[in-house]
Amino acid sequence: VNDWLTTTLILFPLAAALVIWLLPWSIQAVGSLALLASLVEIGIWVNTLTRFDFEAGLQFEQQETWFGDLGVSYHVGLYGFSLWLVGMAVVVMAAAIAYGFWAGRERPRAYFGLMLFLTGAVVGVFSAQDLLVFYVFFEAMLIPLYVLVGVWGGAGRLTATIKFVIYTMAGSLLMLAAIVVYGVSEGTFDLATGPQSDNEWLFLGFLVAFAVKAPLFPLHGWLPDAYRESSAEVAAVLSGVVSKAAGYGFLAIAVTKFPGPADDLQPLVLALASVGLVYGSILAFRAPDVRGVIAYSSLAQMSLITIGVFAMNELGLTGAVLQMVNHGLLSGALFLIAGVIERRAATGEFARLGGMARGRPALATVLMTAGVIALAVPGSTAFAGEFLILAGVFNEGWGWAVVGGVAIVLAAMYMLRLISAVLHGQVGASVPDEALDLRPGELAIVVPLVAALLVLSAWPAAITDHLAF
Amino acid sequence: MIATAWICLLSPLGAAVLITLVGTRISRRAAGYLATLSVLVSFVAALITFFLLIDEHPEERSHVSTLWTWLTAGELEVGLSILVDPLSVFMMLVVSGVGFLIVAYSIGYMDGSDEERRYFAYMALFVFSMLLLVQSGDLVILLSGWGLVGLCSYLLIGYNQERPQAIAAAKKAFIMNALGDATMALALFLLIQRLGTLEYGGVFERVGEVGGDWAMTLIALGLLGGAVAKSAQIPLHTWLPDAMEGPTPVSALIHAATMVVAGAFMLVRLNPIFEYAPEVQDLAAGLGALTLLVAGLIALVQTDIKRVIAYSTMSQIGYMFLGAGLTSYGNSMFHLMTHAFFKALLFLAAGIVIHALVAEQDIRKMGGLARMLPKTYAAMLIGALALAGIPPLAGFFSKDSLLAAALEAGPYGQLLWAVGLAGTFLTGLYTFRMIFIVFGGEPSPFVREYLHRPGHTMPALWMAWTVGALAVLSVVGGWIQFAGLWHPISDFIEPVAVSGVEPSSLQDAVTSVLAVGLGALGIGVAWWIYSARRAEVPRYELGQRVLEHKFYVDELYDAVFYRPAAWSAHAAMRFVEGPLIAGSIRGLTEGTRVLATRVTAAQTGLLRTYALALGSGAAILTLVFLAVRA
Fold it and tell me: A166–B588: do the CB atoms touch at under 8 Å?
C-alpha cells in the first residue's frame, strides 16, 4: 500500500504555507496565493472523491515505518466518512482564508501561512491511521490556533488564548499518556489494525481529550471567550472544523477501539452530552450577541453529535457523520456572517442591532437560509442529521430522544431570536443607513457554503449512503 | 400521471427559486405574475392527474414514485417519493386551486408594497411545501413538508418585519409548530424501532406488528401532537389568532384554506395507523369538539375582523377533527374542501374591506359598509351564510353530513354531535355579529372619513375576479355531494380511507333540520342584538374577561414554559456558567501560579536534591508502568 494521494492532501497546504513564509511577497500576492492554494486543495479533494470506492473500506493508504521497534509508522488513509470530513474541512478553510483576504488581515504572510498550516494539520487528523501520527497532527493543529487567536483576535484575546491553551494542553497530555500506554502494551500504534482494548483508563484519557476539544459540558470553559475574541474566520474554523477533530476522535478511536468501556460508560457520556445539549441551547437563547448564540449553539450541536456517536448503532453513527459535515458548513457560514455584520455595525450586540433586512436582501436571504437550516427545519440536511442521531439514541433509551426533542424546540427559539434581532424590528443604534448589502466578494465567500447546505438538503444520502465505515 | 404529479409539486418551487435569484432584474408585478402562473401550472397538472386517475379502476388508483433516495442509515431507507392516490390528488386540487386564486388576488392586494418579490417567493415556496406535505409517500417526507409549511408560515406572518408584533407572532407560530414537529419525530423514532421503515406502504401494511402495548398509542399520540399543533387545536391553538399579523391573503391561504387543515388531512392519510389506536382517535374527535366550542365562544368577543374569522377557522377545523376522529373520513375531507372555499372568500372579502379602510381592522370603527361596498358585502354575505351552514350554500352540505355521522357513532359520538350542534348556533351568532356590525346600519364617522372605494384599476380587478370566483365556489361547491343521494367525494376517497360510520337518512334529516335551525337562530339573535338593537349586549363581567383573555391559555404558557425557560437560562448563566465554568479556569490559572511559586522553592541548587527527585520519579514511573501492564 503506497498511494500518495492522502499524503498530498496533507502536504500540499503545508508546502504552500512554507512557500508563503519564505517568499517576501506583497499583501495581495500572498493573499491570492493562499486562496489559490486552498482552492487547489479543494480540487485535490474532488479528485479523491471521484476516485473513491465507497464499497471498500480504508483506501489511498500509505504506510512507512517510523519507529519499527515500537510499532509506530507513518500510516495515513481515508475511510468514506473521513473523506467527507476532509471535504468539509478544506471547503470551510478555503472560505475562511478568502474571508481573511477580503477583510485584509495584518501581517499577511504569517497569517495565511498559519491558516494553510492549519488546513494541512486538520486533514492529517482526519486521515491519520497511526495513533502517534494522529497525536502529532492533533497537536500541530493547536499551534497555529494559539497564534491565530492570540495575535489577530479582539481585545480580550490574551485571556481567551490562555484559557484555550490550558484546557487543550491538559486534554492533550491525557491523550498522549493514553496513546503511549496503549501502544506499548499492545505493541502497535496502528489505528487501522490495532486491537481493541478493554482498559477503561485509556478510554477515559481519550474521552477527556476529545471532550475538551469538542467541547462537552462542563469542559467548555474556553469556548465563549475563544469564539468571541478570535476574528470571525478563525472562530468559523474553530467551531466548524477543529471541533470536528473531537467528533472524529470519538467515532474513530474512543468508540471503535474501546467498545467495551464505551459501552460501560455510555450512560455517563450520554448524560453529559444531554446536559450540554440543553444547557448550551438555553445559554444560546440568552446570549446577548450574535457570536454568543453561535458559540453556545456549537456547544449544543457538538453534544448532539456526541450523542449520535455514543448511540453506537448505525443510525446514530451515520447521523453523527452527516451532522458533523452539516455543522461544519453551518457554523462556518454563520460565523462568517457574524463577521460581516460586525464589519458593518462594529458590534454584534443585539441591543444595538436590528432592521438590517430592509434594503439588504442578499444579507437577509443568506442569514435566513443559514439560520433556518441551523435550527434543523424539517426537510433540511441538518434535520436529516438530527433525525438519524435521535432515532439512533432512541433505541438506547427513549428518554435521550425526548431530551433531544426538547433541544430541537429550544434551537428554534434561539436561532429565530438571532435572526430577528439582526434583521427585523427597528433599525438598531449601531446600524448605519449607509451600511451596504453583501458585496460580491462576500457573497462569493458565504454563498458556496450555504449552497452546499442546500444541495445536501436535497440529497443528504450523498453522505449517508457513501460512508464505508 | 406520475409526471404531471411531479410537475404539480415542483412548478411553485421553481418559481420561488427563480424569483429569489433574479431579484430586481424583474419588476415587482412580474414576480407576482410568475408566482401566479406557477401555481396555475400546478393546478392544471393536478387536474390532468385527477382525470388520468379516475380513468383507472378504483382499486388500482395508487402509485408511488421515487425521485431519488433521500436518506439512508443502516436498514432505514427514505426515498424522496410521492404517492398519487385519490386522497393526495383531492388535496392537490384544493391546495393548488384555492392557492391559485389567492396568489392571483395578492397581485392586487400587495400592489405597491415595496417587497413584493419576497412576498411572492414565499407564497410560491409555501404552495410547494403544502403540496409536498399532501403528496408525500413517506413519513419523513410528510414531516419535511410539515416543517416547511411551518417555516413559510413563519416567513409570511413576519412579512411586515418592522412590526414587533408581527415578528413575535411569527416566532410563536414557528415554535408551537416545532413542538408538534418534535412529538411527530418521536412517533417516527418509535416506528423505526418497531418496523424499520417509514414508507407509507410498508408502515400501513405492517403497523399491526407494532404490538398491543403502549407503543401503538404513543405513536398515534405523537402524530396527533403534530396534527394538533399545525391545525391550532386545543391546547396548541394560541398561535393562530396571533398569526393574523400577516397580510390578509396569507391569512386566507395559510391560516384558513390550506396549512391549518393539514392536521385533519393527516388523521385521514394515516388512518391505518390511527385505526390501531381508537382511543387516540376518540381523543382527536374530543379535542375537535372542545375546540369548536371554545373558539366559537372566544369569537363572540373579538373586535378585530380578521381574528373573528381566525377563530371561526379554529372552530371549523374542530369539526373536521371531530369527523376524522369518528372515522367519518369522506365527510371530513368534504368539509375541508368547502371550508377552503368559503373561508378564503371571507378572508379575501375582509381584505377588500381592510384595504378600503386604510388598513383598519377594528370592527368597532366600522359600520354601514353595505351601501358603500355592495359587491364586497354580497361576497361576504355568501361566505358568512356558507360558514353558518345555511342551505343551499357549501357549508350546509358538508357540515351537516359530518354531524349526522357523529350521531351514528355511539354515545360518545352523540355527545360530540350535541356539542357540534351547539357550535352551529355559535357560528351563526358570531359570524353575523361581525356582518351586522361591519356592514349594517349607517356609515360610522370613521368610515365616512377614511373610506377609499376601490376603483377599476388593474390591482382592484385582480382582487375582484378572484373573490367572485370564490363566491361562486362557495355557493356551488357543496352541491358535489348530497347526503343520502350522491357522494362522489366519499366514494373517491373510499379506497384510501374507509369511513367507519354511515348515517341513516333519518339521522341526516334530523341533523340538517336542527343544524340549520340553530344556525338560523344564531343569526336571528345576532340580528336582534346587533342590527335591530332590540336588546343590549348581555354583560357578564367574569365571562367576558375570561373570553377576552382567551381562557388565559397564553398566560398559562407564559407562566409554565416561557418564564421557566428564561429563568433557567438566567440561573444557568448566574450560578453555573459564571462561577463554575469561567470561575474554575480563573482558579486554575491562579493555582498554576501558586504552584509555580512553590515549585521554585524546590530549586535548591543542591545536586543531592535533584538526584533524589530523579531517582524517586523514575521509581514511581516504573511502578506505574508495571501496574498498568499487569
Answer: yes
